[in-house]
Amino acid sequence: RAIDIAISEMLAGWQLNDIELLHKHYAENVLVVSGAWEPAIDGWDKYLAAYKAQRARMEGPILDRSNTFITGNGNTAWVTYQWILRAVVDGQPITGHGHTTLVLEKRNGVWLIVMNHTSLVPEAPKPPTPALPGNNLGGPAGGLGA
Predict the structure, then answer these.
(1) What is the pTM of this model?
(2) In degrees rounded to 5, what are phi and psi of residue 113?
(3) C-alpha distances in Å from residue 19, one per residue of 8, 9, 49, 73, 135
């Protein structure tokens, strides 16, 4: 339960741009792998700089977490969850979704994120629209042909 609360608070801090609340749940030596094709970010200070740059381009983010799985052994825990993000980025509305995996360590009685790996899931292609009866336009799925 404490880990689930910590994740909820961390995500609230991320959405509200509350740096103190966000930092409360990250270790100073955190390793962050983003959903972009870029090197891992090593350490809170570097992560904070990347977070601030990302947030400067974003308005009104809403991040919904679902399908959370938490397990652990002793002072180590790992978590995975799915998420959907809705926001305005560079003036354009976006929706994205993906998976995040966290590794946490209990340090001085507090669960801290020591690794955060996020993966974006590309939009699944939409299935073709089936041809309607009586639609003789030809081509696949009633289209105008290839």
Answers:
(1) 0.81
(2) -75, 120
(3) 14, 11, 11, 29, 57
Helices (H), the chain: 2-16, 19-23, 44-56
* pLDDT tens, residue by residue, 110-133: 999 999 999 999 876 566 766 666
Q: Which amino acid is at 6?
A: A
The tokens for 100 are: 């995040």
Record the tokens describing residue 9, joined without a space. Answer: 């608070």
How far does Cα 36 stand from its chain's mean position?
11
Residue 17's region, left for phi above 0, alpha for psi from -120 to 50, else beta, is left
For residue 143, what pLDDT is reported?
Answer: 43
Q: The tokens 């919904």 sit on which residue?
A: 64
The number of residues in the chain equals 146
